[in-house]
Amino acid sequence: MLMENLLPKEIEDEIKRHPIVYVPWGAMEWHGEHLPLGQDALKAFAICCRVAERTGGIVFPPLYIGHQTLKVYGFPYTLEFSRGLVKKLALELLQQLDAIGFKVIVILCGHYGKKHLEAIEEAVKEYKSKGGRAQVLAVPEYVFAEDKGYKGDHAAKWETSIFWYFYPSMVHIERLIGKEELKGIYGDDPRKYASRDLGEIVVNVIVDRLVEKVKGMLKEASKTA
Ligand SMILES: [Zn+2]
User: Is 29 among the domain residues?
Assistant: First the structure.
């Protein structure tokens, strides 16, 4: 269920049934010449939707407000927002989603610049220290598949594979053919190593584990309610 599409009564009912909200958080950032700028948010969004199908709950619209993007290296069409803004946005979002009645809040970070993640982690701490009651998880999706070799990359083998699986018509590997230098791609060469099948495998692992994690958080939340 997408939050922006719901009627007030529909939100009310879903919060009673499954008080879970998923926030897919990415950036508007160069992702090689073969992937769209919104890849981080779109990837996180697709994973959140898949998980929500199994746990219930509501998916918030994807956010494209990223800190520590490739803008600092001069990559075009990339938007860089300040650390303070990202932190404040996360904090105000957590507080308001809590006030609405969500008991479990998952921020799935498709963009994982270290300082960007730190800003969000700080917001979670501040939210809790100010009396926030919801169970909060704010992590990049790869934490659920590190044992499969996925430790987060940038438009390389893994991100390309995941995106390929969800959005096959939006991946343009052909734009990389014959290039000597892959611009803004960090990790294993997607021309050699990325595939839709790999994307499917790793997404299934991530989704299964996130579903389990959320079920646990829900149990925890019902104890403290
Ligand atoms: Zn990315």
Answer: yes
pTM > 0.85: yes
Identify the domain containing residue 83 by its residue range.
19-211
CA 216 / ligand 1 centre spacing (Å):
28
Q: How far is the CA of 87 from the centre of ligand 1 (A)?
A: 19
CATH of the domain at 177: 3.40.50.10310
Type of residue numbered 166: F
How much helix, strand and coil, in percent to the nearest 5, is found in the chain?
A: 55, 10, 35
Cα-to-chain-centroid distance, residue 103: 19
Query: What's the domain count of the chain?
Result: 1
Residue 218 counted as domain residue: no
CA distance 52 to 211: 8
What is the distance in A from the centroid of ligand 1 to the CA of 72? 15
In a domain, 198, yes or no: yes
Could you list the pLDDT tens digit for every one of the 225 residues in the chain? Answer: 999 999 999 999 999 999 999 999 999 999 999 999 999 999 999 999 999 999 999 999 999 999 999 999 999 999 999 999 999 999 999 999 999 999 999 999 999 999 999 999 999 999 999 999 999 999 999 999 999 999 999 999 999 999 999 999 999 999 999 999 999 999 999 999 999 999 999 999 999 999 999 999 999 998 876
Domain membership flag for residue 221? no
Ligand 1 centre distance from Cα of residue 128 (Å): 28
